[in-house]
Specification:
Layout (H helix, E strand, L loop, with lengths): L1 E4 L16 E3 L3 E3 L10 H5 L3 E3 L5 H4 L2 H8 L8 E4 L1 H11 L8 H7 L5 E4 L6 E3 L2 E7 L7 E6 L4 E5 L7 H6 L5 E7 L7 H7 L4 H11 L4 E5 L6 H10 L5 E3 L5 E3 L1
Parallel strand pairs: 3-4, 4-5, 5-6, 10-11, 11-12, 12-13
Antiparallel strand pairs: 1-2, 1-14, 2-3, 7-8, 8-9, 9-10
């Protein structure tokens, strides 16, 4: 399994993530914060499935651009998976003919821009050789993490969440689990803001990590750019042997 954290910076390599997207095996995207900026365009055209964790702008910002970029006047189109709450937000706040044309309606009336699919926590979706299971997280809006599996490997994406239990209970005993992409957004001194915004600090991350009870790769993502140095220093001070800071542009192979 290959997973690439898509860069969201323009004008040179950067460790900062302004927007969130990762691409699995070149054909499945988790979130669409920067998916519509992915170059060359052929890479966008290979994406057949987009799974949205939640409705915040850094995770959906470029979805309209992506759907326009890859549109063909045929029956072929990407499938977009999201919870009912996210679809409600997309219909009311994005595809509303004010922010962007109503691509959902147009997909029913003309050749489609997208095929919408509703996600349910704990219900697995099979796309090609991958099985993707969403699990509800604890954020300020309805949010899901994902367990991504093939016949040999499993990887979890857990970002935009407060401390939670459900996803750890479901993934900790998976014998194929090789890595978790886990967030740490704010430094420990901003614990108050992390809790109000629905995010983790390095200290909260370390408590979450203990719930897994497994030594697999821990790849930390979603570090707020304004606090990048403070957060990475605190993460390194945890001395967790499998911890690494996520690198935009890097392809992780498991």
């Amino acid at each position: 399994m290959k997973i690439q954290l898509i860069p969201s910076a323009v004008g040179g390599a950067s460790d900062l993530q302004f927007l969130m997207t990762c691409v699995v095996n070149d054909c499945v995207a988790i979130d669409a914060g920067c998916l519509g900026y992915l170059a060359p365009l052929e890479r966008q055209r290979r994406i057949e499935h987009v799974f949205l964790s939640h409705s915040h702008a850094d995770h959906i910002a470029s979805l309209p651009l992506f759907l326009d970029n890859v549109y063909k006047p045929t029956s072929e189109c990407p499938t977009v998976y999201a919870s009912p709450a996210v679809w409600d937000c997309l219909r009311q706040d994005v595809f509303n003919d004010r922010i962007w044309p109503d691509l959902v309606r147009l997909s029913r009336e003309e050749t489609p821009f997208l095929r919408p699919v509703f996600l349910e926590s704990g219900k697995t979706v099979t796309v090609g050789s991958l099985r993707i299971t969403p699990y509800a997280l604890q954020h300020v809006v309805a949010t899901m993490g994902f367990l991504i599996e093939d016949d040999r490997t499993a990887v979890a994406t857990v970002w935009d969440t407060l401390p939670t239990d459900g996803i750890w209970e479901h993934i900790r005993d998976n014998p194929r689990l090789r890595a978790v992409f886990l967030e740490a957004s704010f430094p420990n001194s901003f614990d108050w803001l992390a809790r109000k915004a629905g995010h983790l600090t390095p200290e909260l991350l370390s408590r979450e990590w203990r719930k897994l009870r497994r030594d697999v790769a821990l790849i930390v993502v979603h570090i707020k750019p304004a606090f990048y140095d403070a957060v990475t220093d605190e993460l390194e001070a945890l001395n967790l042997p499998t911890l690494q800071i996520g690198q935009p542009g890097k392809t992780y192979e498991f």
